[in-house]
Amino acid sequence: MFKKLYQSPVGKKIATGITGLGLSGFVLMHMAGNLQYLVGPDKYNEYSHFLISLGPILWLVELGLLVFVIFHMTLGINIWLGKRKARRVHYAVTASAGSPSKKTVSSRSMIYTGIIIGVFLVIHLLSFKYGTYYETMVNGVVMRDLARLMHEKFQNPMYAFGYPAVVLLLALHLRHGIWSAFQSLGATRPSISPFIYVIGGLTGLGIAIGFLIVPLAIYFGIV
Amino acid sequence: MSHTMTIHLRVWRQAGPEARGRFVAYTVRNVNSNMSFLELLDVLNEKLIHNGDDPIEFDYDCREGICGSCGTVIDGVAHGPQRRTAVCQLHMRHYNDGDTIVVEPWRATAFPVIRDLVTDRSAFDRIVEAGGYVSVDTGNAPDANTIIIPKEELENAFDFAACIGCGACVAACPNASASLFTGAKIAHLAGLPQGKPERKERVVAMVKQMQIEGFGDCSNHAECEAVCPKGISISAIAIMRREYIKAKISP
Fold first, then answer.
1. CATH code reported for the domain at B122-249
2. What is the pTM of this model?
3. What is the Cβ-side half-sphere exposure of residue B216, based on CA atoms within 13 angstroms?
4. Contact, A178 vs A204, CB < 8 A?
5. Which CATH architecture has domain B4-104?
6. How do the domains of chain B map onto residue ranges?
7. What is the pLDDT of residue A2?
């Protein structure tokens, strides 16, 4: 069944849409979780400790996310390779006919923003999840001090500005991605499509802003 | 009121399917602003024939914007800058004296160039053959009003039936996808009682044929809707996907 899904032009889009929406939901929660750093390092550590102590449930979620990432990426690359085969001779001049076209920098750069986010994901996991293990005690409970690691990492301008740059690319990806996922699932109609497009774009921007606040606040010594 | 102008063209010339193509520059003087774009090519071709050169090959039939035969990419936009018109209904009054216009054929592996601006769009015919029809018993024509269809459903289906199969959607799609064309057929027929009985086999077969023909996958750029001379909405593509999901869940 997976093979058929992988080959069908419509099946591919449905799978890309479902995994994309799933991952969007994840980054939204991740962003909300990060914002707890602004409340205080202890609050942030308690939150991360809560997630770590979920144990097998967390592993299951992580496995699910990994499967989603792999599917989403291979499908995206497959669609991109297919498009190169479907038009071997390129136009000398390309333009957009304008509205109602949604052909934008966002939609044209999905493969590039996607690859950058994918590479970033590896670096990000190595820096934090598999980064230095500090310990701290909050309310008598010994737990991982992720807040300290975060504070340390974002003193480095490479991290403090690199992260915001990548999350802005994520916003660009989501601006086309969220609307596109709904369209791929057939969950749109002319009356609601413009709303989905705007809400998708704003969600992407909101997620980016939520993510970039913490690194910049740490770097500039606000928190 | 009409005026005359000088128009510079850069036209894709390709002697045959396997030949190497290239752009050739032409200048046409005394272009009447009331000419259509195809008439501009006619005037240029008369000059070329007079000089013993090969005329530029391009497809057309009705020249009324309704048959879907014509179609070239003009300055990067399928059917040119005029919204909701086929290229035959693009008039030179939209251009200024001294303009340079780049003219290219539809570019898609599934639409091979036959010569110059003429492409082979028979891939569309094969997609329709795969299921874009309604099976009926032969015999006498049925009475016109035996199946009553509510006005709104009828109008919705007709909006999709308006597709003239010109291929601009494929030409404009960054991925050379035929999703708007195929979606329009599926949405048209699935919206009518006559088309409903075969809706599941239809969507599966037509989507499969679209893939076999070598069209790319849709990335929801919606550029197809913007260039469609009939303004067919990409909601056709959403309907195709809904139909596909339903057909796969309960075949």
1. 1.10.1060.10
2. 0.95
3. 29
4. yes
5. Roll (3.10)
6. 4-104, 122-249
7. 61
